[in-house]
Input
Amino acid sequence: MASDLDSAPADFRAALLSLRDAPTHPAVRLAEVPAPHRIAPFAAAVQGEVDGAEASGRFVILHDPDGQPAWDGTMRIVALVKAVADPEVGRDDLWGAVAWSWLTEALASAPHHARGGTVTKVTSESFGELAERPGEVSIELRASWTPTTTDLAPHIAAWTELMAACAGVPPTQDGVRALPGRTL
Output
């Protein structure tokens, strides 16, 4: 992942290596992307796209060997999910709470604390010359949390499951793994 991985602290290297064989959702394609550099001394980022759906996201791993008080630890995960949703979502006042519960459930097997974030829903309705366009609903979930181990495989797996759920793609079944050969 990070080009200067050899000079990174052991905890950060272990965290990145744990992502290689993570059981991510098979409908989500992953690729390494540039990470933000001003937030923490060490960072890595992964972009995700859901096959056949208008959904994408970003998974960022931040590491500060000295820790940061707001993180309550030395490592922080920042996750983003964006998706175009079914118009029914636009009429559902509880959808934000439902999306947040999907994140909570997905992270149940990923040891962490200090979780926080937002769910934003935007509805667009066209008028006048554009009245023929169907309504559109887009959602965005931003979250961050502090992992309590360097094994980030359950964390990225939870994020890909969340991304697929927001896109309306069914969850993977327990015990089902993506085929080998994907690279991050």
Remarks:
- The CA atoms of residues 122 and 138 lie 5 Å apart.
- Helices lie at 10-17, 87-91, 95-106, 153-166.
- The beta strands are 28-33, 42-50, 55-68, 73-85, 112-124, 136-147.
- Confidence is low (pLDDT under 50) at residues 177-184.
